[in-house]
What does this fold into?
Amino acid sequence: MNLEARKYQFIQELVKVEDESILEKLELILKANQNDWFDELSDSEKNEIQVGLEQAEKGEFISHEDVMKRFSKWH
It folds into this structure.
């Protein structure tokens, strides 16, 4: 059975569930699988990433090539 068929079969079984506690458990499982590494970061880490993205959008960055040239003497 392929993935799409399994999903469809699961949906059919899910419609039949009448026990709310089972639905709550399934929701927890689905939410646990949707965690993103970004969600695990602290607020200060998220802010630093946002600052870096904004700087990159403005062109305020040094290219990888330039960094490698600058530090080539230690290579």
